[in-house]
Amino acid sequence: MNGGTDDGDGEFEVQLGAAFGLTGGGPEPEVTARLVDGGLAAGRRRKRARRRRTVLLAGALTAAIAVGTGVLVAPRDLPGERTSVVELAHSGPDQVPAPLSDGVTVLLVGTDSALDARGEPVPEELLRGDLHSGAAGAAGRPGVTDTMMLVHIPAGGGEVRELSLPRDVLVKDTDGRTVLLNQLYPDAERTALKSLADDGVSGEALRTRAKEAGRLALLKSVERLADVRVDHYAEVSMVGFYRTAQALGGVPVCLNHPVDDPYSGVHLPSGRQELGAAQALAFVRQRRGLGGGSDLERTRRAQAFLAGVVEKLRAGGTLADAARLNALYRALDGSLVVDQGWSPVDFVRQVPALAAGKGTLRTLPVTENDGDGFLAVEGAARSILLGDAPAPPDAPASPAPSAPSTPSVPSATGAPATVRYLPGPVELGGVPCVD
Amino acid sequence: MEEEFVAFATARTGQLYRSAYFLTGGDTHLSEDLVQDTLGQMYAHWHRLSRPSWAGRIDNPAGYAQTVLVRAYLTHQRRRSSSERPSRLLPEVAEDGPDSALRLALVEALSQLPPRDRAVVVLRYWEDRSVEETAAIVKDSSAAVRTRCSRALAKLRGLLGGDLAELVAR
């Protein structure tokens, strides 16, 4: 080693900068021309590929709501994808609950799959950097559905009712086994992958059909759990969420306390603030340090974020402006999966409650279980969503759905269960402060 | 719109190529690939220049392109890391200029740095980015960038030492 005394560092940096500046030999003009032509050709290929894959997808609301769900599925050039899960769920002998008068119910799902809607891996820099997903997202495993929201719009569209379904609620799968709600989709997807592969299905068809099986299992189970018919379905991946947050350009939220959680990568002060895409994702994903570290408290983050998205679009006038809705919608192409035959843009415009900021976001009340997971309070989901029965009381002591005949849950032990967690509602029309 | 892009690409290719040349430690073939890939991505994103700011407008296409280039390189590097090319390609461009000795010495020294350290050095001392900007581009913390930077400087200093002052002064 030569050189190297400490007092020479500054001087060395100056020399290094000068050295870079002096070695400025650029390419010859013909090399430049070749590179520009090559870049142009590469860019055209990219755009063509993207156009081929792109199907009209999501509307601003769906996108916005989906953003709130913290889901993940679609990466950058994701084409839109259409799912026929709603049709499938209502065909055949398996009867679902009667439809709600003229209202519309949408199931919003967020998954943590590391694969985009095309089945391609998320760019590594996203996984290791802003997404803070770490090794969990690295393998090509089917993603769990950590965020599930039912949104009901009554006839007339004058009010939005949202119900968050905790991911650790116990439900029965199609084989009658009791599983956690967030495992239904990946379990069914894995099973389908295996059986379809045995049947010789491969490639894109295998991936798509396996995901459809996952969606179908989840949708039907949610319908049983909540005792409502699901009319529309939207799914967003972590990457889709990230890109949507980017397109929104800062979403207002409000925190009661500062948070600093290295697991999700969230470092935020208290008070009202606008979140960029990376912090938005961390905000809805943080679990450690929130309440008991179960997933129950996290649902409020997603709700607060959703309220912030609606507020952002409302305050900017986007929700009332067809041109801007369409622009946002185009910016989001490929980030969402929605069911066939549904136009989220039209849908948003049919719901005046969104532009008016009228709506209430609630979490499904649950009771403790002996082992893993929680039990849904019977009948609560339908009454909250449809508003046709009083919501369960807030006092944790009162409701005691002991030995419920809940369709989705094995009978509880004799002791009366107490409601484990029943947060107050989050209201649309502002930026609610949450823990 | 296409003429606009071609004008942009023509104007920026020199700078992008030089950055790529340093980033790759003098691998001219890889540099060309990276520049073409970067221009391709810029073309695909060109419509974002005219987006409203709330929908993700690209405000500074030149800076954006440099960032795309560095990230393309780092991605490439990760994918290739298990099979790193053992022999670096020496520059084939004309070496008769007065700066050729300096360039060779600099690139030779750069090529001995780990890829990420090299990216940090190029961003800090070639592109004159601040520590914070560099950190944002390579998706690291500012502290990590500082650490990489001082480690890389120590190594470069050991490799170049007094020669650098001499070559720069020539």
Automatic annotation (TrEMBL), chain A:
It holds the Pfam family LytR_cpsA_psr. Residues 390-404 have a biased composition (Pro residues). Gene3D superfamilies: LCP protein (3.40.630.190). The keyword tRNA-binding does not apply. Residues 387-416 are annotated as: Disordered. Belongs to the LytR/CpsA/Psr (LCP) family. NCBIfam families: lytR_cpsA_psr. This is Cell envelope-related transcriptional attenuator domain-containing protein. PANTHER family: POLYISOPRENYL-TEICHOIC ACID--PEPTIDOGLYCAN TEICHOIC ACID TRANSFERASE TAGU (PTHR33392:SF6). InterPro entries: LytR/CpsA/Psr_CW_biosynth (IPR050922), LytR_CpsA_psr (IPR004474). Residues 145-314 form the Cell envelope-related transcriptional attenuator domain. Keywords: Membrane, Transmembrane, Transmembrane helix. The chain crosses the membrane at residues 54-74. Residues 405-416 have a biased composition (Low complexity).
